[in-house]
Amino acid sequence: MRLYLEAESKNKVGYTPDWMKVTFYENGKQMEITLDIQGDIGYDDKCLSCRCKGDLIPWVLYDCENGDEVDLYSMAEEEVEKIFPDERVAKIICEGNDHRIGIYPVTNEDCEDEEIFETAEDDDVSDGKGSFEMLVDGEYYHKEFEFETELNI
Prior knowledge:
Oligomer: single chain
Number of strands: 8
Shape: globular
Strand order of the largest sheet: 1-4-3-2-6-8-7
Distance between the termini: 26 Å
Order of helices and strands: EEEEEHHEHEE
Largest sheet: 7 strands, mixed, barrel
Radius of gyration: 16 Å
């Protein structure tokens, strides 16, 4: 899996992505899945500009209509893989209609550890654009998308 993300930071704070949330429809019901972003992540220390090469791990499944939530992270990895094989995850991302990225601030020469969180809380991160690519059993999945961010502190 490859994930490319870019967004502007008003306060020139660098961010690394933590998770991706995608809204999708299944059997006529609106659902959300949160995917943990794991792997090799290269990032910029003045904005959100990164490339991720690794895995998207299903973390939480939420039924938007009745509020039911399934904590996938508490299940055995093999069980989660049966419910959400790579092909299904790729289709959800490509067919999803709302994408959110959880971001975590990184220090730079302008902000030390103590002040980076305060600066990030006051930041405006905008114009999020992303690209997702995944090859599953010889089938190529690709999606260009816009996204909002949520700060994880």
